[in-house]
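anyone seen this seq b4? input:
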Amino acid sequence: MQLLDRQQALAIAPLWRLGFRPFFLAGALFALLAVALWAAALHGLTRPALSAGLLAWHRHEMPFGFGLAIIAGFLLTAVQNWTGRPGLSGRPLIALFGLWLAARLAWFVPMPTAVLIALQLAFIGLFIAQMARQLIAARQRNNYPILLVLSLLALCQALTLAGLALGDDNLQRRGALAALWLIGVLLSLIGGRVIPFFTQRGLGRVEPFAAHPWLDRLLLVCGMLVAALFASGHNLQPHPGLAAPSIVLSALHGLRLWRWHLRGIWRVPLLWSLHMAYAWLLLASLGMSAWHLGWLAHPSLASHALAVGAMGGLILAMMARVSLGHTGRALQPPKAMAWAFGQLNLGALIRVSAGSGWLWLAALCWSLAFALFAWYYAPMLCRARVDGHPG
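predicted toks r here
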């Protein structure tokens, strides 16, 4: 039976053997193309024909097009290790990926808004159903918080799309920003597991980092509270009393970074890229606190610290590391990836600190970072594992 399963797995084209392969590659390509198009449109270089407004497209596609693609690729792969059950592969994976791709292209095809919305919600619904099926069957209760956050993310997408259908800009903002902070919660959940583990393994440290479940739970609660405040509309206007959750988040993220820090990480690109990206979660939380306290003029600086620095940075670093491990390669990325990590962090810094006249440079840094990943990793993702494993 095991021999038959192996033969069946090897009969599948390498790109469709596990979720990380198509979603990492397509997500990286989408990241560079979407941001390049957004920047070109902002500078009047092009007028993309969209079925909805340009701003609505940008708000939706950063968390639900790009972010969700990489989240799906990572979780559909990780759940196989968590449960010991085969991950999604072959035709079911092709179908799910095809739905994601159709949802991205739908913005550029004239169609009724209801059809556009149905395509967007179908992908996240099927993705959550697949994750729930595997986690519940294996009774993986420790991973149920991930299902909770994914379900809340689906509600945020529905809220965003309801705003699109009703022409309500405020509703769109509430849904998109709440989703972005929920993605921050997922980054915290997953980062809290893998960053200390990768750091320990990458530096040859024998003793594992001590676990602090209370810290993980408090981060989950505070992160969801911030997202809920956005979804309800309360976080759209500054109020000193609403700074508390963000202040607590900042302190907890800072505590984590302090606990994980070892001087040796700065010699290893696969490690310093993760730690720097996680530091953007701290900066985003500090930015929200400062805005509520009247020390920061605009909340978009905090949101872009989260979207560009934390989400983009952790995604790029995780893809670079996970792709090597799951294709059977040594954990030594191409040398150009150190430049990619640096470019992405530079782009995030420009986006949150420079004026609007420098948005093109931030977009260029972002696009070049993901272009480097796609260039060097596409052959790995499209070919069989080098160790002969069918994954």
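The domain at 12-382 is CATH 1.20.210.10 (Cytochrome C Oxidase; Chain A). The two ends are 17 Å apart (CA to CA). kinda curious what u guys think
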